[in-house]
C-alpha cells in the first residue's frame, strides 16, 4: 500500500492570500477520499489473500481482523476530515479589511472543528504511535515572546469592534512564538462549551483557543500578558478558518499583516495535522501488512514494502 503515492496530489496543501476557507475544506475532503481509496485497496488485498483459503482456516480470520481493524481507523479519520471540510465559507482565509470590526467564528462550526480535531488526535495517538501534542507555556508577556506590547496582538480577535490600532504584526509575532502542535494542543485543550459566548472579563492563562476564536468586544480584555500564546494563536487559526470569522484590522496595511498572521496560523495547523495523519496511515497499513503476511506464513507475502 503506497499511501504517499496515492495521496500525493492531496498532500502539501499551502494556504495563500487568495485561498478561501472553502478551498481548505475541499483539501480536507480530498484527503479523506484518499483514505477511502486506501481502505478500498486494503479490502482488495484481503480478498486476494484469502482466495483459495478454507473458510474454517484460522488464517482467514486473522487476515479479516487485520484488514477490518485498519479500515476502521481509516474510516474514522475520513469522517473527521469530512467534518472539517464543512466548517468554512466563501471568504478568504484570515479575512481582514481596513478598519474592519472583528467577527466571532460560528459557534456551531467551532464545535464541529473542536470535535473533529479532538477525534483525530485521539485516533492518531492510539493507532498511529503519534505523541500527544504539547501545550506551550509561552504567554503574551513581552519578556516571554520579545518585543514591546506583544499582548496587543490579541486585539486582532476583537468581536464587533475594531482592533483600535495596528496590531497585525504583533499578532504575527504571537503566532510565530508557537509551533503547529502547540496550536493544535491549545484547541483540543478547550472545552466544547467555549464555542459559545464571548470573553467578558480579562483573558487569563485559562482562556482557551475556542474562546479566543469567539473573542470579545472590549479589546483591552483580550490583550492580557497572562494569556497563553498558543491559545491566542489557536484562536487566530480558528477564526481564520471557520465560517463567519473575520480578523479585526486597523488602517494602512494592517489588513495585510492581519491576514498574514491568520494564514501562518492555519498553515501551521494544517502541517501538524497532515504529518499526524500520514504517520498514522503508514503505521496502520504496515501493521496490517505484517499481520496478513504472518497469517499466510509460509506463503508468499501479498504486500510490497509500505512507503
Protein described:
With 307 residues, the protein is an all-alpha fold. Helices cover 55% and strands 0% of the residues. It has eleven helices and no strands. The chain has helices spanning 3-6, 21-50, 58-84, 107-127, 142-145, 168-176, 180-188, 209-214, 219-222, 229-241, 254-296. The protein is elongated and about 75 Å long. The N and C termini lie close together (7 Å).
The domain tally reads 2
N/C terminus separation: 7 Å
Shape: elongated
Mean pLDDT: 92
Task: Provide the succession of SSEs.
Answer: HHHHHHHHHHH
Provide the gyration radius in Å.
Answer: 22 Å
Work out the strand percent: under 5%
| Count of helical regions | 11
Which structural class matches the secondary elements?
A: mainly alpha
Helical residue percent? 55-70%
How are the secondary structure elements laid out?
Blueprint (H helix, E strand, L loop, with lengths): L2 H4 L14 H30 L7 H27 L22 H21 L14 H4 L22 H9 L3 H9 L20 H6 L4 H4 L6 H13 L12 H43 L11
Helix pairs in contact: 2-3, 2-11, 3-4, 3-11, 4-11, 6-11, 7-10, 7-11, 10-11
